[in-house]
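Q: My labmate handed me this sequence with no annotations at all. I'd like to see what the chain might look like in three dimensions before we decide whether it's worth expressing. Could you predict it?
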Amino acid sequence: MSATSSVSSYSEEGQTSKLLRKSKEAPFVPIGMAGFAGIVAYGLYRLKSRNTKMSVHLIHMRVAAQGFVVGAMTVGVVYSMYREYFVKPREQEK
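A: Here is what I predict for the chain of 94 residues:
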């Protein structure tokens, strides 16, 4: 398959199939997105019963969401490095 045909096949795919393909290539990206959305939903839920100032609450929620996303990205990078440097060389030996 040439480069031009692979580019045209990517441009013809829909948003759902593109998301599914990207999820298979990097499975920790949707996990990070879901965690971010969960923390934002939790922050909105806790907004009405907070005991702190609004600015402090928002800063805590932002730090929690960013921490989850950075953690998911770190785990994803470590997982892909593991696949690239440990699993593939073993497959090539066989």
